[in-house]
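Q: What does the predicted 3D structure of Polyprenal reductase look like?
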Amino acid sequence: MLVLGFTAIDFTWILLSLFFLLAFCLHVFLSHTSAKCAQSRVCELFQDLIRYGKTKNSQRPSYVRMCDVPKRWFSHFYVVSVVWNGLLITVSLQTALLGRDLPLWLSNTLGFLTDSSAAAWKGVPLCTVVAQVLLWAHSVRRLVECTRVSVFSRGVIHTVQYAFGLGYYILLGLTLLCVRGPQQHQGPPVLWALVGASCSSSGPLCSSTAASCCWHTCGEVQTLEHGLPRGGWFERVSCPHYFAELLIYLSVGVVLGGGALTWWLVVLYVLFNQALAAQLCHEFYHSTFQHYPRQRRAFLPFLF
């Protein structure tokens, strides 16, 4: 049932966006409160839930360490994404090129998420397939990055974050199919797919720059400690890979025609999610490196 013109999938992304916006605001507020308040058990649990990897406090109490899993398990997210979204692309291509109907389980799922009948989902526009391929290729790149480029220290992530990450890419693939419909405008998919691919290709450069702080010139890992990344987008922001991620989602929105409200809610979620992660990394760099460049922003060049 539609509420205020929003579907179930719309409300899902609105709630996720609000959660990360509130988490960001709460973190900023707590950073300006007294140390006693910041060290309370509730605040400890909150900080442990929003942090991962290098931004987690190494002196955390034992009761929060029980929920830790290795950060290198990040690669599991992209394995799920490559397999699941690869399956959806296969189904979409059969529908778009061969005129086949969507499988009943998929049309029923899309009908539930969009508060429409399963019969309404008979075809997949070409621009949706282009967007699917763009995000799938991005997941493949991130998987290669995690397994071949990144140097994972002893960093950890929370089990809640791990479970959320696994479900995120499943939901994302379904959302991409949900944004298509009779009112979707056909955009210039090839041009904006190239823009998205360009943003995606900048990711390996950022990851290679960050990882080079740990690698020796002979090709062996020299240290697991985090170094100060320099060069490229790192001269403007502390987390250029997060900024590139946002640009990829923006380009997908244009590939879809620019009028898909559901996808712009996804972009809003990505903005708040990456802003929180970037702020935590930015604070880590400032606290770790005494002469950290002052001109660097956390996430958005010249702005934030």
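A (community wiki): The structure tokens above were generated from the sequence. The first strand starts at residue 68 and ends at 70. The first helix runs from residue 8 to 30.
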